## 1
Amino acid sequence: MNDNKQGAAGSDTPNQTLTTRQGHPVTDNQNIRTVGNRGPSTLENYHFIEKITHFDRERIPERVVHARGAGAHGIFEAYGKVGDEPVAPYTRAKLFQEAGKQTPVFVRFSTVIHGAHSPETLRDPRGFAVKFYTEDGNWDLVGNNLKIFFIRDPLKFPDMVHAFKPDPLTNVQDMERFFDFVSLSPEATHMVTFLLSPWGIPANYRQMQGSGVNTYKWVNQNGEAVLVKYHWEPLKQGIKNLLQSEANEVQALNFNHATLDLYQAIEAGDYPEWELRVQLMTDGEHPELDFDPLDPTKLWPPEQFPFLPVGKMTLNRNPEDYFTEVEQASFGTGVLVDGLDFSDDKLLQGRTFSYSDTQRHRVGTNYLQLPINAPKTHVATNQSGGQMQFSPDRAEGQNPHVNYEPSSMGGLQEAVKQGSDHEPHYDAKLTRQKLDRANDFKQAGDTFRAFDSTEQDELIGNLVGALSGCKNDIRERMISYFTQADADYGRRVSEGLLHADQSRTLSGQSNPGLAVDKAKQLGHESDRY
């Protein structure tokens, strides 16, 4: 066992001697070995070669989405109820059953579209991913700060991300590309209404909501299921969003503000808290609703499906190393424990394949053996090998010669069921069709009317600024969508664009070309050196 707590002389002073990863003490970390003090280097510079080759490989592939992130550890404490009712009739998931039961968690917050070192003030959905280390293994609740999404079918996801990411030729993000895609995807109107409002720039990670976005299921002891949506609501810290002008002020001072805010709050003992609330609905199509409950572009009306508290999460410990914990943290929507299940939400089905697949590509085949991803309970599988396997997933007393199941020679055995299986019944054609009740604009109008005057003004200004650089057919499609959502909504965007064209001024967001011209005009000239 490697013990660094005692110094080389046997004292209580920690041994802080620099070594290689082979444990060799390093006596000179300033100079490589050369022929003379200015001659060529030699191939046997082992310390240098080990050091530089590791440095060359310090970065793993950046996440395609959610690249910029921050994280923290904490606990989730269950209330033992869902609202005022016992939780057991709805789900047999153990972490919810007892009041006061605590489950360790790790949370990663992020922006979605922008790169790993992009400003945290940019307009973008924020990721809100929680890993619960439960007694039945890990549960990952992977969502965003906004409760809905742009699309409802996963087939559109790669195209959506391509449209939102930088242009493949200029490597610059372009709002015309963004609106080109969403103007041909009317289901995105509701999300655009949120994103271009102040809700598109949370003030920081602590003061934002979270949501699982997709519809899941809870399953009880009898195998009976209900549909469920998850929501994280900030408690003592409240909710704050930024206007575009305010975000510009913050970015001018520090583009890492949200990461720093989270870290400093926890270091100071001002632990952020969120209450986990759920909305429940009987499992079925619900023809009485004007939308499909599996549609992730829709909100479930809280007056019909109230937010029911089930527990509280407190983040109370910062990571000891960013890369080891935050960057290598790997989540997946398919990581569920007994008592939790999937719904038939198409987007959820697509995400469930994609998330775990990308972790194997990004972090490695054995990413689940890393401490930040490994469950804090018994693990025993017959999976083995692959890059960077740390140890076999072998149970105590297991016959090491048997790496298959079933076996009568001391291999692993199947677990005893904790309750009846949930067995949904299907009787429909295999088809390629969108949901019957698309209703793409009604809730966007409801959301616009629910905004206060500041939020409405900011939304209109940001839309006018962004759409001013788009060609007419894109503008017309978007104005049509906004008008179908709410007549005043569409009218104000249309009038704003007309005024912007006449005055050549852009409202809300700056014209990217202006920055190019400004940089040419400004600057301090210098002589060569």
## 2
Amino acid sequence: MTTGILQAPVVGQASSGELHRAIDWRGAFWVASGVPALVLFSIGGIAGTAGKVAFLVWIVSMLMGFIQAFTYAEIAGLFPSKSGGASVYGAAAWVRYSKLIAPLSVWCNWIAWSPVLSLGCSIAAAYILNALAPVPGADNAAVLAWVQSHASSITAESPRVVEWLAANSGKTAADGVAALLSADAISAVTPAVRSWTLHAGTLGPVSFSLNAAFFIGALLMLLTFAIQHRGILGTANVQKYLGLIVIIPMLIVGIVPIITGQIDWSNYTPLAPLKAAYAPEMGSWDIGGWTLVLGGMFIAAWSTYAFETAICYTSEFKNPKTDTVRAILYSGVLCLVLFSLVPFAFQGVLGLEGMLATPIVDGSGVAEAMGKMVSSSGWVTNLFVMLMIFALLLSIMTAMAGSSRTLYQGSYDGWLPKYLSHVNEHGAPTRAMWTDLIVNLGVLAIACADATSFFFILAVSNVGYIIFNFLNLNAGWIHRVDNGDVVRPWRAPTLLLGLGVLFAYVNAVFLGAGAKVWNPNALWAGLIAAALIVPVFWFRHYVQDRGKFPDHMLADLGLTTADLSKRRAGALPYVALIVGAAIVLASNWFFQLPA
């Protein structure tokens, strides 16, 4: 095996130690085709916070993401020899104004994308466990037999019945006995693997568990690594076929309920938030209601904006001048369709009560629910569960491909430790992939513990993602000011570039107001995670590189490190940062959860 430190790739050539120019925009499209499956991660959670407004949250968020993509398409075209995505291209704009803000963009993009591996594997593992060792329902024959044989184990005078009556007003002792017997029976006949764990505990605000789901998820992660090891062309070829067998069923889920008349239009009205999260009672558009909806907008962004990963592969495009913009815009159209149709149909069929059911909120029953929306046949439902497992594997592969290249390019450009600038003979950044894998095995143990821990990881990850988006949407106009004379293969309409800047501050509101919906410590934990770039960058820049950036960092712009002292935008980038931080803090103070 021949490996080495990467040199700037040359179009039409690929030598050992370089990313290979092996795909066109279609390859990137298929690699990014895993993004629509991200709807499976939080469709239940958003329904639990936004209620009947949930379908609108997805549509508005997706439209924002599509408009923002025009900014990313322009700045990506400036860097035909870089990989790693918008964060890397945006970092080149910020480096003139702060050595620290530039790597923050790259770091926050990585902490946003990398957890897709662990979160996706945890959901896929839950689907597999449900298929192989399902929890029996109350009407299961084994459950009914257990109840009959243990009918005398609970009496009306039992302390458990008294406690149950206190929590369920209006019910009788007989109701309590029946409910408790059924619960005991389900627990008794549930396969032992569902409760087995090698080790479990707590870690600050979250739990962790080395349970069966963890080990299944770890195997799925290793499978993904093995596929990615073959390089970007092999990855794109695998994902093309996976994408076809996933995208088509998701389109079916979005269209069939509308055609067959399963949509109950009353499930969209009244268009008001919930009175409290995960409770079916309708609320009003007061501060508490807006906070819950903004929480939905906050977490939806993690999925709907994510198709920007299609431009992670610029240095692997055969013709980056045309492939870059086509990759992101066609991927955006696909996501616009699926992120609008699937949540709309999901809500129209299930309704508020159905969306707030525990298996939907925690994600374990989403695939089964989608199958039942298409057909009442059991084999169709089972088929859909299998297809949704493929969908999650697709999203995991998309995440590893993108996040590993972010680590690689960040290392090659001088932001992250040098050891990450390494590829195998297939052009795969294997050291970055191993880093992703090891970090995510730890995160997987948290994600597999419970729904609270899962959404904490998701929220912390999204804090990084919103920071990255804020920096890169502003990078669009900074590049226009500082690098206006550099040829752009594609230039975004100025109106859309301006809307992107406006959305940067709207996203700041989502961050300040919405993160607390998922966990009271999510915002602060996310900011701490973002701040970890300080020691990482300090080690690379001041210890490994002795305070100098690599000469090739700005080569695509025709600049050298000596040109970094020319700051045409003046104080405006600093003003943008201060205003953004002020909006986050003000939103966090003003918006409060319902009492």
## 3
Amino acid sequence: MSGTFLAASAQAGGGRRHTGEAGGTTSGLSRVDLKGWAKAQLTADLARHDRQRENTSKTTLASAASFSSTSASAVDRQATLLSSPADDTAAADPTTLVLYDTAGPYGQLGELYAMATANLAGHFGTVTAKPVQQYTAGMIDSYTAVIYIGSTYYGGSIPDAIPAAFYQDAATTTKPVLWMGANIWGLANDVGVTRFAQKYGWDPTTSYYEDGGSVGTVTQVTYKNQALTRTIPAGQDGGVLRPTILTGSGYPAVIRLAEGLDTSNGHTFGWAIRSANLTYMGEIPFAYVSESDRVIVLEDLLFDALAPATTERHRAVVRLEDISPDSDPAELRSMADYLYAQNIPYGINVIPVYTDPNGTYNNGVPETVTLAQRPQVVSALKYMLARGAVLMDHGYTHQYGNVANPYNGVTGDDFEFYRAHVDTANNVVHDGPVAEDSTLWAQGRVTSALALFTAAGLPKPALWTTPHYAGSAADYKVFSSNFSARLERSLYFAGTLTGASSDPNRFIGQFFPYVVKDVYGTKVLPENIGNYEPEAYNNHPARLPADLIASAKANLAVRDGFAGFFYHPYYALQPLKDTIDGIKALGYTFVSPAAL
């Protein structure tokens, strides 16, 4: 996998405490050659650098294009994704235009990054996403802000696909423009380097991804006094553009919003900068993302463009995970008593069927149990609901048939809506939707699950969490039609924006720091700091209360953000207490997932 994705952890219930996919992998991309992309970007940037040295005089004296205003034109809304803000605390329906690249051998990256960006902007209001070459003059006038994602490096063998109309409108509008990654030098060249420098105070045409012949080792981005992580595998780092800030009379001030640190040489630079109405980020921060990652900068900067009057507040959400008919009622009641005493509302993720089809934990004898067949568990669930819990559906069986998917076929351990295996390097690999995947099949699973809640005398769950956070695009639409929201991390598949058929396992995985309305049209509630997992597994380190608290601290940089996490009730109570105490001490207030 190019980039990784955090999946929910697993358990077998009833005291059978063993790791599944807890901690999981971090948000990112599947089946995308980021190593090849990074090499192509740096090769193109080096060529631009060489051309710049040869043509310095010509470049710096380039005549400026006109900054004349353009009139508004009719807006093509065929790619409109969202119809309403995800949270009534956001500004009154701001609109966002997301433009992305599709050209070149890595053109598929554009749509994946555009979905991730559109999902975040879906917190604020309506979002329209379209390939940048579809931009027409004046289109920006119909939106609150525009975001361009430069994932294809234009130049050399890849002609510039950005219309001159967008360059002109971006340079003349007074509306917020957020530009990520490549081709900012194209804007400067189009409108004139001198004019660009006089308006924005820096020179993209002399700004490069390398510092002294190397991308260096940029491992930290500091934003709002939070030291955020940046961890890129060797050979897959396309670099961060180091902006050439101009000083002296005649140049406006450039605000360094976030500072990048290159630990190979100690150099710091503006990882994100702003001048006039232009905010520029030197990379696209959606690959190799962790719970304390530099993507937090983007998540917060969107408020500046779309809801600048937002009042700062910090909320937390917790849920208890992988509860099944095989869970221990005493453990559930113990958790309920503690959370109730602390006045903490919480979610309970319940799997209505426990099955061990191969007898993995039952001496080789297959076993299947429903909620109605475990009245003591049901009684404990009702006890929890009376003490602040919110009932959530966590699949039907949380496993797939009698096969290892990827472990043993037992409820809580395995994927239900997606196939997976463990490779020879001990990594969990997503293989694609299950063979029979369809809208009808997924709806059948949901219908069966809901019937079992009713049979047990429990209310219908209003919220859903996908087992191991993995389903197909068709599955997510089914979940959306049955539940008011999902509380989870999700997969977003290529072809979702364009309608084109694509590799069903080419996706971007994402988690959110606030409530969003995503490109599937579903409200998604935040789980962004992970879960307690005391043991390492599948190349993922243990994740202890201190780690969750550190991630919550990093997310304080999001001015109206959350710390969302989950906990398995088969673990001891003390780590949960430690985690909650630490998050409270940071100033977070716990709220019910049902209130979001």
